[in-house]
Amino acid sequence: MARTRFVALALVTSFLSVVAGQLRPLPAAGLPGDLFNQGIASRLRTDRDTTAKASTDFGQMVRAAPEAVFHPRAPADIAELIRFSAFSPAPFPVAPRGQGHSWHGQSLAPGGVVVDMRSMGRGHRAARINVSTAAGAEPYVDAGGQQLWADVLRATLRHGLAPRVWTDYLRLTVGGTLSNAGIGGQAFRHGPQIANVHELDVITGTGEMVTCSRDKNSDLFFAALGGLGQFGVITRARIRLEQAPKRVRWVRLAYSDVAMFTKDQEFLISNQASHAGFNYVEGQVQLNRSFIEGPKSTPFFSTTNLSRLASLGSRTRVAAIYYIEGTMYYNEDTTISVDQKMEAVLDQLNFEPGFVFTKDVTYVQFLDRVREEERALRSASVWEVPHPWLNLFVPRSRILDFDTGVFKGLLRDANPAGVILMYPMNKDRWDDRMTAMTPTADEDVFYAVSLLWSALSADDVEQLEKMNELVLDLCARTGMECKQYLPHHTSQDGWQQHFGAKWGKIAELKAKYDPQTILSRGHKIFPSRAADVVGVATA
Length: 539
What we know:
Elements lengths: L1 H22 L20 E2 L2 H6 L14 E3 L4 H12 L7 E4 L15 E4 L12 E4 L7 E5 L4 H9 L3 E3 L10 H5 L8 H4 L6 E8 L4 E5 L4 H7 L7 E12 L3 E9 L2 H11 L2 H4 L5 E8 H6 L9 H14 L3 E11 L4 H12 L9 E7 H5 L1 H11 L10 E6 L3 H12 L7 E9 L18 E9 L4 H20 L5 E3 L6 H8 L3 H11 L15 H10 L1
Parallel strand pairs: 2-4, 3-4
Antiparallel strand pairs: 1-2, 5-6, 6-10, 7-10, 8-9, 8-10, 11-13, 11-14, 12-13, 12-16, 15-17, 15-18, 16-17
């Protein structure tokens, strides 16, 4: 009997040891051992499967494994992790990761800890989505930084409300888009998403939890919005809302003349047209070879429509066909008036006669339109492939030069897989106190041009990266003064040129809010303090 009890006790002890090992992971060689004695240690994972999933991003252009992945239950857990690193003799990088939708390793943390923002529990106050509709006050939503915009949409629509500006893809986190800017077809009217934020909760690089706004801790507020994660982790945002429509009249208008295309786009975003015109304005460029070698139908265009567009390209002998994409929002009781408004706007435009393509969809169907394309790409196994993207803001005065040099020049005989976006925004809807950059040219309008490539082979990756370099070189050689959106630079000199006159202030705020430079090092904006120390010791 005694022997039986001994064996049973040994088995139970062994089981508990295994469980304890799962709850409190083995220390990682590159992290301070004391980290695994902290109260948050049970939420760290160091196993290879977990770290491998956090070793790349949507772009799949860079691979770099973290030492650990952290699964916080609440913002206070993140603050404790950052505080430990910041005051450790050997500070390690910490990178928040929502959907990992960066494209060149910006959300990675080699040698450090990736924070899985999506793991925050739904029960915590900051993890919920709370809509305020107090009488006499402007409605707003408080959303945790880890929340998907798709979930914010669902929560606000229950109150008949919605945020004013949307990115084209809704499976992105609130904190992720606000750390960049958050642009889309509504930005010409309301500015980017960062211009529609009233208040933030931010965890700084010293582990301090700070509530900030335009009137309170304003330097951190403006720094964090568009700040590429350099000054803190956004854990809550208070976002302005408006009445949500029920339906959307959605049109695409085809052009063979880029000058007419840009003229009409600029008219549509002007004060003259925006009051009674489109609620959303974007544009696309389709290279002629893609009509022959690309898909024969899309979620928007039927096979017949694409055949007609291909004939237009062949007949006009142009390098590309351009589309204005616009919408008008309406409700069931305003169907007649939206028909009249649409006709009045179209009468003022110069698209190719007969090349108007219209769809009528619900508001949700329109905002979540890329989801349908995602499903189609996933089914064809071409969603999770490398994405060597290049996003640029081009001054209005140089957009025709850009078209000549890139679409009619570098890309004339190319047919890369992907989408090309090209649409204007009003500069006065952006707040220059925020970190996000726009072209420095003294012009009222600039263009977003997005080369959203998908590399279907290893050769494609090399060729598309080389093409992006040629585009950037063209911009530099011809003095276009473009700015990268979702920027990637390989040197601090590149970053100083990117930020221009803002650089001194940005460096000052970095020293104040992240003095050990532990946050979001994947951007490679600031060298780590550890590297500085090593350099001094070596010297």
